[in-house]
């Protein structure tokens, strides 16, 4: 992984996401508890990832600096959707819907249609 630093994997993968995902795999937790943790941390996750991507867009002198569509959040979407079908409590399902709604503001329409919409239909 270190060989591909800033080539295949952006810096936030090493400085933040890798350690954050270890939390979910190290300690045994139910999917409901993982969703609660994800909901609590979602704004911090979005801030870390979008800050990095905004810096990239400034460096590339993009015209769309205000509304960054985050490709890095797709990794978090995969974590979230992997937990959805195993949820047991209604409150956890509602929390998952809240996280989906928050993340949808930062995702491209293709990701929303391909990865989020099927789970929204499942939870509805």
From TrEMBL:
GO-annotated molecular function: protein serine/threonine kinase activity
One cellular component (GO) term of this entry: phosphatidylinositol 3-kinase complex, class III, type I
Disulfide bond as UniProt keyword: no
InterPro entries membership: 2AA_helical, Vps15-like
GO BP annotation list: late endosome to vacuole transport; macroautophagy; protein targeting to vacuole
Transcription regulation listed as a keyword: no
Pfam family, one: VPS15-like_hel
Residue intervals of the Phosphatase 2A Regulatory Subunit A helical domain: 76-123
Keywords annotated in UniProt: Repeat
Name of the protein this chain belongs to: Phosphoinositide 3-kinase regulatory subunit 4
Source organism per UniProt: Parasteatoda tepidariorum
